[in-house]
């Protein structure tokens, strides 16, 4: 599939992705990429974020490739039941452990727990070994549950 054959939906995490973030650069470079905007970036509400992801997927006129980072990952996964079958694949980076009671800020826990289901589309999950929001072993666990191909990004 060529970039022009898909709508690439960028799904940032907590506090959005700033001008130097890799997601912002991809959005600027990829002609069919656009950001899923959230009403509230610094005080995320799970139901609102999930609804926005599902709305954007369902409004797409081409197959969708989802590019989620951090809190964007659980927003994507929780939106799956509301999505029409338009998703061609997902690139999921740095999924936070939203079930960990040590996560800060605490309201991020409202995005957990992650569903334990095989994703209905191909996916790559990229995780590092020194992410303060999610241990690598957590990423391995959810990648296995989802049937995602796991890529070790190192430290």
Topology (SSEs and partners):
Layout: E1 7-11, H1 22-29, E2 33-35, H2 46-59, E3 64-69, H3 72-79, E4 87-93, E5 123-127, H4 136-146, E6 149-152
Parallel strand pairs: 1-2, 1-3, 3-4, 4-5, 5-6
Helix pairs in contact: 2-3
Written overview of the protein:
- The protein is an alpha/beta fold.
- The chain has a single domain, classed as 3-Layer(aba) Sandwich (Rossmann fold).
- The chain has four helices and six strands.
- The chain has helices spanning 22-29, 46-59, 72-79, 136-146; strands spanning 7-11, 33-35, 64-69, 87-93, 123-127, 149-152.
- It has a six-stranded parallel β-sheet, sandwiched between helices.
- Helix 1 (22-29) links the parallel strand 1 (7-11) and strand 2 (33-35).
- Helix 2 packs across helix 3 (72-79).
- The longest helix has 14 residues, at 46-59.
- It is globular, with a radius of gyration of 14 Å.
- It starts with 6 loop residues before the first strand and ends with a strand.
Round the Cα radius of gyration to an integer and report it: 14 Å
CATH topology: Rossmann fold
Known CATH architecture: 3-Layer(aba) Sandwich
Helix content: 25-40%
What is the CATH class designation? Alpha Beta
Q: Based on helices, strands and strand pairing, what is the structural class?
A: alpha/beta
InterPro entries: AB_hydrolase_fold (IPR029058), RBBP9/YdeN (IPR010662)
Protein name: Serine hydrolase family protein
Keywords: Hydrolase
GO molecular function: hydrolase activity
């Amino acid at each position: 599939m060529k970039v022009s054959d898909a709508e690439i939906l960028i799904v940032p995490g907590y506090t959005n992705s700033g001008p130097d973030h890799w997601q912002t650069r991809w959005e600027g470079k990829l002609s069919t990429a656009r950001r899923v905007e959230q009403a509230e970036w610094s005080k995320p509400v799970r139901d609102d974020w999930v609804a926005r992801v599902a709305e954007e997927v369902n409004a797409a006129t081409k197959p969708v490739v989802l590019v989620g980072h951090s809190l964007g990952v659980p927003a994507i996964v929780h939106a799956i039941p509301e999505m029409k079958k338009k998703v061609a694949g997902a690139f999921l980076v740095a999924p936070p452990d939203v079930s960990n009671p040590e996560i800060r800020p605490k309201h991020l826990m409202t995005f957990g727990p992650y569903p334990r289901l095989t994703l209905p589309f191909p996916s790559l999950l990229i995780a590092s070994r020194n992410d303060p929001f999610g241990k690598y072993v957590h990423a391995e666990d959810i990648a296995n549950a989802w049937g995602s191909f796991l890529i070790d990004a190192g430290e």
